[in-house]
Amino acid sequence: MERKFLTKTARTKKHAIRYFNEPFRLVPLANLADIADKFTRNEVLSSNEVRQMIGFPPVNKPEADELRNKNLNKPGDGSTPVSTEPGESEQTNENQMFEFRVVFTQDTGEKDAVLKAKTIEEVYGLIEEIGFTRDQVTSVTQV
To answer: Which of 18, 104, 116, 140 is disulfide-compatible with 108, CB 3.0–4.6 A?
Structure first.
């Protein structure tokens, strides 16, 4: 591949092109969870597509193949997200994100991770989305 894309001068200067088959294997767990959340929340990729990219098997749930924001509504419940007009007063800030420290069990071999989410349940959702179970988590605390 080097000869096809690089000139003779580039080859003599030891230039090279690197290609990574699985680029998400190089991403730390905390960043990977954040990336997975952003891709699924913004309806760029479905949960199963994210799982495939990081090397996990697909989930056999119909909602795992849907492009939808899991934080807004559940599939088939008929609800629509409520938006407030700019002049209305709203006491809770729905977009406020918090940092949570996730401590994994020793058998996973994972280091502690800090994830950004709105609720602890959302943190557990992110953890399950990337392939861990609740049993593999020792604690989740707000930082």
So the answer is: 104
Residue 106 burial (CB < 10 Å; 0-12/13-18/19+)?
exposed
Give the model confidence (pLDDT) of 64-116 as tens digits: 888 877 766 555 554 444 444 444 444 445 668 888 888 888 888 888 888 88
Q: In the structure encoding, which two tokens stand for residue 121, read together?
A: 């349940």
Reduce the DSSP state of residue 51 to 3 states and report it: helix
Radius of gyration of the chain (CA): 20
**pLDDT attached to residue 77:** 52
Give first-to-last CA distance, the chain, whole Å. 47
113-117 and 98-104 strand pairing: antiparallel
pLDDT for 18 beyond 60: yes
Is-contact 86 129, C-beta < 8 A? no
Q: What is the pTM of this model?
A: 0.40
CA atoms within 13 A of residue 83's CA, in its CB half-sphere: 2
